[in-house]
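So, who can interpret the following?
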Amino acid sequence: MDKEIHKKIKRLRKVKGYSQTVMANKLGITQMAYSKIERGVTKLNWDYMHQLATILEIYIWDLIDTQKEYQPTTTKEIDAVKNIDLLAKLIHQYDEELSYLKKELAVLKQRLRNC
């Protein structure tokens, strides 16, 4: 993930008034492990990013979008536009993967015929 995401996590933590220890406790990890997240040493997976977004009371998309400034929101708010955009991106990715897999299948079928 982009180093800017790690910097944004640190900024948001400070805005919330949380210490690294508080964040670590909420994540169920050590303070040292959490420090590595903020410094960009630890790569973030979706589970961690979801947990961080929940703790910081933001949408995960706001965490990922490093160009966007922090806008205080709660996770309970519904943001239909962002959900639609995300779903459209996921559909596009799945379409690309499906196309690739169809090509792979055709190649494998051809190899079987040639055996």
